[in-house]
């Protein structure tokens, strides 16, 4: 018997319905962002809260929300895995592979493995952004001394 679009849609619907049932039965649970504690880095003027990671049951990725106060920054470094930064509000001045650019909300950037990068909030208001890694707790290789952009 030949399958049609309706059959494909029905299969997707059954899968989505099963996922929703699992969510409400306790098998899968959404992360309530406001319930996650902030960790503050006083020197860099950056706060971070983990949204998805090992505590949420992830095995191979992590997602965090970060806030940078005016003047907040992360020094130049690189990772062995990709990183995605998505600016939700405010502006970040980013250095990536020797090039400088501004990221205004809403915008995202993909940082490839091994590419040196860092950022600074040069504005007069805080910036909020998401950081995603396809690995848990990826190693940061810092340029010495930990230089600001």
Structure, briefly:
The protein is mainly β and 149 residues long. The protein has one helix at residues 5-25, and strands at 39-41, 46-52, 62-68, 73-78, 83-89, 91-96, 99-104, 107-111, 117-120, 127-133, 141-142.
> What Rg do the Cα atoms give?
19 Å
Count of helical regions:
1
The count of strands amounts to: 11
Helix content: 10-25%
Structural class call reads mainly beta
Q: Order of strands side by side in the largest beta sheet?
A: 1-2-3-10-5-8
What does the main sheet amount to?
6 strands, antiparallel
Hey, roughly how much beta strand do the residues contain?
A: 35-45%
Q: Spans with pLDDT under 50 lasting ≥5 residues? A: 6-24
How would you spell out the order of helices and strands? Answer: HEEEEEEEEEEE
| Average pLDDT metric | 85
Shape: globular
Separation of termini?
62 Å
């Amino acid at each position: 018997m030949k399958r049609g679009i309706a059959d494909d849609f029905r299969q997707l619907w059954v899968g989505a319905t099963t996922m929703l049932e699992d969510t409400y039965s306790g098998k899968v649970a959404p992360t309530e962002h406001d319930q996650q504690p902030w960790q503050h880095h006083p020197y860099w003027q950056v706060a971070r809260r983990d949204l998805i990671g090992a505590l949420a049951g992830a095995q191979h990725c992590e997602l965090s929300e970060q806030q940078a106060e005016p003047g907040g920054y992360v020094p130049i470094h690189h990772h062995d895995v990709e990183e995605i930064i998505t600016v939700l509000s405010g502006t970040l001045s980013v250095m990536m592979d020797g090039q400088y650019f501004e990221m205004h909300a809403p915008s995202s950037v993909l940082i490839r493995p091994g590419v040196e990068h860092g950022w600074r909030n040069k504005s007069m208001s805080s910036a909020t952004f998401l950081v995603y890694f396809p690995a848990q707790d990826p190693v940061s290789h810092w340029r010495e001394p930990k230089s600001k952009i």
